[in-house]
Write a structure and sequence with these properties.
It is a single chain. This protein folds into two domains: 4-29 and 75-317, 3-Layer(aba) Sandwich (Rossmann fold); 41-73, no CATH class. 42% of the residues lie in helices and 23% in strands. The protein has helices at residues 4-33, 57-63, 98-115, 139-151, 162-171, 214-223, 234-237, 263-286, 301-317, and strands at residues 38-45, 67-73, 78-84, 119-125, 129-136, 177-182, 193-195, 204-205, 225-232, 244-249, 255-259, 290-295. α3 runs antiparallel to α4 (139-151) and α5 runs parallel beside α6. Mean pLDDT is 81; it is low at 187-211.
Length: 318
């Protein structure tokens, strides 16, 4: 029996995201992701105006006049949400944690998918694969996906993106839309810290990106359409001026003390974070992966809309 407060939270996310899907994003989703594959339908006689690249030369040679292969767009797609449940996701400087934001983004994409009659699957990961839910259709299935993202208790706290990407290749053999939702803070980042002692807020600080496997990302993107969604928070971009703080790493448990009142340290931190974001973007570019950054303190609706528009324009040009 699922506790009432959990059902209430899931229902709230459903109401909030379903409205966004209905009013704004459903059409964009279909435009961006439709036609990921083409299915052969028939061979028919060539007609003026047909694309000569579609001519079936074997049939043409046998029949002594041109025939073309006719394809139809693949209608049913599979969306696999690959969601990071590492310890740093529990952070949120405001009302919403990164894990809660990840659940909302997953909800938007999942409801967009089932509205388009697509299947939705889920891979939860930390240092390894925590849980796998095979792709299925339907509202009840999507609600289960949201529930697991919000309330699954991970066995580990670190991060290793290679594990779910390798697992993906075994459980999803056909081409799919793969959305990786993570803060992309690797387990070797030594100063990803959680502020425990000020204003009852938990703030995670990150300095460096662990060596995420470019090879794994490239391989995944060759087989699938991989999209990266980075969930972050304003205090991962800029250190707040709140004096001395005791900090604890959300994944390793390391404890240190830092003077956030030191302006030089705050500026140095901001520069490191800018460098981190540039390195991360270079990683995505090298793997030819589209990426979007969403923050817990900002509305994601407009950012998602712009992201879909950009992908659709590039798709039309291609």
């Amino acid at each position: 029996m699922i506790p009432r407060e959990i059902l209430k939270k899931i229902r709230l996310i459903e109401l909030r995201t379903n409205r966004l899907v209905s009013e704004t994003l459903a059409g964009q989703y279909h435009s961006v992701f439709k036609g990921q594959g083409m299915n052969f339908e028939e061979v028919r006689e060539y007609q003026p105006g047909d694309d000569v690249r579609s001519i079936d030369w074997n049939v043409t040679a046998r029949m002594n006049h041109p025939f073309i292969k006719k394809f139809v767009e693949e209608r049913e797609l599979t969306v696999v949400l690959v969601v990071d449940l590492s310890g740093s996701g529990l952070f949120g400087s405001g009302e919403q944690s990164k894990r809660e934001l990840a659940a909302e983004i997953a909800s938007v994409l999942a409801f967009s998918a089932i509205r388009n009659n697509d299947k939705v699957g889920l891979i939860l990961f930390t240092e390894g694969v925590e849980q796998y839910i095979p792709p299925r259709k339907g509202r009840k299935h999507v609600l289960r996906v949201i529930r697991e993202i919000l309330f699954h208790e991970p066995r580990r706290h670190g991060t290793d993106l290679n594990q779910p990407l390798e697992f993906l290749s075994h459980v999803v053999p056909h081409r799919a839309i793969v959305v990786v939702i993570s803060d992309f803070l690797g387990q070797s980042a030594p100063t990803r810290l959680e502020i425990e002692a000020h204003l009852r807020r938990k703030v995670v600080l990150s300095e460096t990106l662990a060596q995420t496997s470019l090879r794994a990302l490239r391989q995944a993107n060759r087989r699938h359409d991989v999209v990266a969604v980075q969930v972050t928070d304003r205090y991962e971009m800029e250190l707040p001026d709140v004096g001395y703080l005791v900090l604890k790493d959300a994944e390793t448990g390391e404890v240190v003390e830092i003077n956030t009142g030191d302006e030089k340290k705050r500026k140095s931190f901001a520069r490191r974070q800018e460098r981190f974001q540039r390195d991360l973007q270079r990683l995505f570019n090298a793997a030819r992966i589209d990426a979007i950054q969403l923050r817990t303190d900002e509305s994601y609706a407009a950012a998602l809309g712009r992201f879909f528009e950009t992908r659709e324009k590039r798709r039309r040009r291609g």
